[in-house]
Amino acid sequence: MSKEVILTGVRSNAELTLGNYLGAILPLVRLQQRYSGDYQINAFLPDLHSITTPTDYDQLYARTIYNLRIFAAAGLKLDDPNTLIYRQSYIPAHCELTWILDSFIYYGELSRMTQFKEKSQGQESVSASLFNYPALMAADILLYDASYVPVGEDQRQHLELSRDVAIRMNNLFGDLFVVPKSWEEQVKFNHTGARIRSLKHPEFKMSKSISDPSGTILLSDSPKDARHKILSATTDSFSLIDYDFKLRPGISNLLLIIATIQNKAVEEVTLEWKGQTSYAKLKQTAAELVESELEKLQANLALVTENEALKALAKHESTVREVANIKLAKVQASVGLRPKQ
Ligand code: AQP
Predict the structure, then answer these.
(1) What total of structural domains would you count in the chain?
(2) 205 part of the active site
(3) Does 247 lie in the same domain as 160?
(4) What is the enclosing helix (H) or strand (E) of 101?
(5) Which are the contacts of 89, defined by CB distance < 8 A and separation ≥ 6?
(6) CA-to-CA distance for 202 and 214, rounded, in angstroms?
(7) Which domain holds residue 82?
(8) pLDDT of 54-92, one tens digit each?
(9) Which of 38, 137, 199, 327 lies in the 20 to 30 Å Cα band around 339?
(10) What residues are in contact with ligand 1 under a 6 Å CB criterion?
(11) Does the annotation mark 224 as catalytic?
């Protein structure tokens, strides 16, 4: 039996943040270290998703390669035979399958997506591709029969839509797709699903496309600046350390940062700090951890060349194109675009 597939990616629309690092990059590296061999891992660079919201088009190409170098610097092995690494736009089957899936996804379903509503709010013009984002995401997943897609709560609806369209098409055409695991089953690789918050406005997620310089740590920030941002993080006036994002978002954020870097459950770290009252000490601990993590990452980044990243992509992408084309051909035949297989 072939291995179950875990699929994950990070858009290259803007500079990566500590949130992306702790919520997506480190978990991927740890996933590879722990599960490679037991699972097939698809680590892809969603460059097509990156243009669904405004971005700097002059930077996009370079940023996509840069992001892969960041993944490698964080510890992702580019030559692991069980990890496929590829740019979405280099595999044409993603777009072709999207069009077909679009014909089996309803307008009403796409209209209900809360992420579309959130991301389109306040924008002068909203692209059709932002509306259609979940169909492309479904294609990303279904092309490779992925079972696990570690994503945050904000992507839950998209994952559920992918399941719905897979089930709908399987009912019509037989077993075309592996149905991704349900949200509840995704927890196996989803860890906490908790989001790192802005250091200044901890009621909001730290996001790469929101301008919040003192609340956001960029992976390109100097480690000293990052340290300073943590030391100036917004907390509260309770003077009691506990993990509760509703009551104490700033403190909970620091506990989450510490736990993720130390690769511990947040409950464990909360227990270690429970009853303590010194926010300064907590900030100091988080600041030191982030500073040294960034120092390590940036030193490693200098050792990963662009050439190395490009070579890995070329190698993986030719394999991936073949895998994707086999699935696409099966779907095309099922819906009558090609002779029956
Ligand atoms: N604050 C966060 N905490 C934990 N994980 C996070 N991720 C993003 N922000 C945090 C994870 O990083 C990956 C990025 O996915 P994406 O780039 O496709 O889009 P996103 O989830 O919308 O992330 P951003 O940084 O907020 O991007 P923008 O602002 O461009 O939309 C995902 O795995 C995500 O969970």
Answers:
(1) 2
(2) yes
(3) no
(4) helix 93-102
(5) 47, 48
(6) 12
(7) 5-194+306-334
(8) 999 999 999 999 999 999 999 999 999 999 999 999 999
(9) 137
(10) 10-11, 13-14, 17, 19-20, 22-24, 151-152, 195-196, 205-210
(11) no
